[in-house]
Task: inverse folding
């Protein structure tokens, strides 16, 4: 803030300086100048709002002036907003963003580093970049109840190859024709299930089938907020069947200073899928606000210390 003023008398200036020194503890200290303005956008679902708040609040704490445009819509709305500079940053998903930016060429794989590298080749012409991806991931996954995890002594998808004939898989009706669903489980993992039960895609029918043990394996999303309350455990995709939809900040090059990148990468370095599940549960089930959930997470993980 510019606080220059005309001083008429040197003696008056000296007196004012003495007074300021004597009374400084009771005066109002002006806020530090902002390091810059950053607008954070988000998709129209709660997890995106949580992630946008995590990035935005971390940047705000570091001295940036942050504004938000949350719940903008789908990627077909958010991506053009980035191109036109209406937003500077949004929390992306590596594989899904590559699928959008490469116009569905099918280049995404289970290798997150390779997927993000490909994504950056398609972001570059629009003067955008994807930063270091988080270990946190929101993607198709296969889960079992804790009871069946213990019963069959499994933790990863490859464990199912030997016992698939005892298990029923439940998923959306399209699963038998999707390469990342039943065909992929067969070809990548060699799993041959006893039966397939067509249900909704990660919806109430799937949850009911888990509860009644009508299915032993079901398609879910890896960061669902209700996994814990339904006693569901995601099986590790140890052969990387699913495309890597790791959380990754996507930012305009004009806003991507070294300091901004450091702040965002620091958030991503600590974020886990389990954290996402917990925060999604707090918003979806406990009805907390995304900004409050993000603030509590950042405080608990010493971002504000």
Result:
């Amino acid at each position: 803030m510019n606080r220059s003023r005309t001083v008429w008398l040197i003696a008056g200036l000296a007196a004012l300086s003495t007074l300021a020194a004597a009374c400084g503890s009771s005066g109002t200290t002006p806020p530090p100048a902002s390091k810059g303005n950053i607008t954070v956008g988000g998709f129209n679902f709660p997890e995106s709002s949580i992630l946008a708040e995590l990035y935005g609040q971390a940047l705000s704490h570091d001295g940036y002036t942050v504004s938000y445009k949350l719940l903008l819509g789908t990627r077909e709305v958010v991506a053009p907003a980035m191109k036109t500079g209406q937003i500077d940053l949004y929390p992306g998903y590596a594989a899904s963003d590559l699928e959008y930016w490469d116009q569905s060429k099918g280049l995404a794989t289970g290798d997150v580093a390779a997927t993000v590298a490909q994504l950056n080749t398609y972001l570059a012409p629009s003067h955008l970049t994807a930063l270091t991806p988080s270990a946190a991931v929101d993607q198709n996954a296969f889960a079992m109840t804790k009871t069946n995890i213990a019963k069959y002594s499994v933790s990863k998808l490859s464990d199912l190859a030997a016992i698939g004939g005892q298990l029923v898989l439940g998923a959306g009706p399209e699963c038998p024709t999707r390469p990342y669903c039943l065909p992929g489980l067969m070809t990548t993992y060699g799993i041959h299930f006893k039966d397939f039960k067509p249900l909704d895609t990660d919806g109430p029918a799937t949850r009911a089938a888990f509860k009644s043990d009508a299915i032993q394996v079901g398609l879910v999303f890896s960061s669902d907020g209700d996994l814990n309350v339904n006693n569901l455990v995601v099986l590790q995709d140890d052969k990387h069947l699913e495309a890597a939809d790791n959380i990754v900040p996507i930012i305009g090059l004009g806003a991507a200073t070294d300091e901004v990148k450091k702040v965002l990468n620091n958030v991503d370095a600590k974020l886990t899928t389990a954290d996402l599940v917990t925060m999604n549960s707090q918003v979806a089930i406990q009805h907390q606000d995304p900004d409050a959930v993000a603030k509590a997470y950042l405080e608990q993980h010493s971002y504000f210390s």
Notes: The CA atoms of residues 106 and 245 lie 13 Å apart. The chain has a mean pLDDT of 91. The longest strand covers residues 65-73.
